[in-house]
């Protein structure tokens, strides 16, 4: 039954309840279409009442003067709404992990459930990382080869570092993140340099690997290479949490 079938004067029947509901919905829709903006301060109505609160987006004003005059009355409501929006953004469902390019199953969230290969830049699940490798004819091949691109694993740290640098130059965000840890820890032959570590983490996050912001937040939280700044630490933890970092979300809850 459509709304057009439920006009005034329709005979009462078993469908009266449906008609009544449809009429209410029609009236609500008409009211929404004819709604007029009202200034929260002076009560003025009209299409020119379009000066919206920039923080909470809940109320409108006819001009900046009304917005300023109403600020002290609106402050608590505004702060409460801003906090609600912040928490909603912070703890919304994180974006799903990519699928393993070999078995096509979802990549696990925990770090032990996946492995990054700096030869091809692919992240594969730990199951495929440790499974036997076969060629196109079904013959078992050397397990020291990459399960995805079949490149032989590096036999020296020099080759491994060269591959890492090549991936960084290619704009690989995970490679940039790993390079940051090499500088922060002074490992794999890299000198310990927190400035370069932070630069690498920032680049990784800007390229899409937002988990790197968690490392930046940790650096500010504990003063590793920078002065301790709890506000900046919180800021970067939250950026990582919004991007879906499990560790950053845990830290954000503990610190709140």
SSE layout:
Elements: H1 16-33, E1 51-52, E2 60-61, H2 64-90, E3 114-117, E4 122-125, H3 126-130, H4 157-169, H5 173-185, H6 194-206, H7 212-222, H8 230-242, H9 246-255
Antiparallel strand pairs: 1-2, 3-4
Helix pairs in contact: 4-5, 5-6, 6-7, 7-8, 8-9
Structure in words:
The protein contains 9 helices and 4 strands, in the order αββαββααααααα. The protein is mostly helical and 256 residues long. The protein starts with 15 loop residues before the first helix and ends with a helix. Helix 6 packs antiparallel against helix 7 (212-222) and helix 7 (212-222) packs antiparallel against helix 8 (230-242). Strands 1-2 form a two-stranded antiparallel sheet.
Overall spatial form: elongated
Number of helices: 9
Distance between the termini: 52 Å
The figure for the number of domains is: 4
Strand content: under 5%
Q: Helicity, in percent?
A: 40-55%
Strand arrangement across the biggest beta sheet: 1-2
Question: Characteristics of this structure?
Answer:
single chain, 256 residues, mainly alpha, 4 domains, two-stranded antiparallel sheet, 4 strands, disordered N terminus
Q: What can be said about this structure in brief?
A:
By secondary structure, the protein is mostly helical. The protein contains nine helices and four strands, in the order αββαββααααααα.
């Amino acid at each position: 039954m459509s709304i057009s079938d439920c006009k005034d004067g329709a005979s009462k029947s078993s469908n009266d309840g449906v008609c009544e509901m449809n009429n209410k919905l029609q009236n609500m829709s008409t009211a929404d279409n004819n709604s007029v903006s009202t200034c929260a301060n002076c009560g003025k109505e009209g299409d020119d009442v379009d000066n919206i609160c920039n923080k909470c987006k809940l109320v409108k004003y006819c001009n900046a003067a009304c917005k300023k005059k109403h600020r002290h009355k609106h402050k608590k409501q505004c702060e409460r709404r801003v906090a609600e929006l912040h928490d909603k953004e912070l703890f919304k469902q994180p974006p799903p992990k990519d699928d393993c390019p070999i078995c096509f199953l979802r990549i696990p969230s925990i770090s032990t459930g996946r492995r990054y290969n700096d030869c091809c830049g692919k992240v594969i699940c730990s199951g495929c990382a440790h499974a036997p490798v076969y060629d196109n004819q079904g013959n078992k091949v050397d397990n020291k080869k990459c399960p995805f691109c079949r490149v032989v694993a590096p036999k020296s740290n020099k080759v491994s570092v060269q591959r890492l640098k090549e991936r960084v130059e290619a704009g690989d965000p995970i490679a940039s993140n790993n390079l940051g840890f090499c500088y922060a820890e002074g490992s794999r032959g890299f000198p310990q340099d927190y400035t370069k570590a932070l630069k690498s983490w920032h680049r990784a996050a800007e390229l899409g690997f937002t988990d790197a912001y968690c490392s930046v937040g940790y650096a500010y939280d504990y003063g590793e290479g920078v002065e301790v700044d709890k506000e900046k630490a919180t800021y970067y933890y939250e950026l990582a949490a919004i991007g879906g970092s499990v560790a950053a979300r845990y830290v954000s809850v503990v610190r709140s």
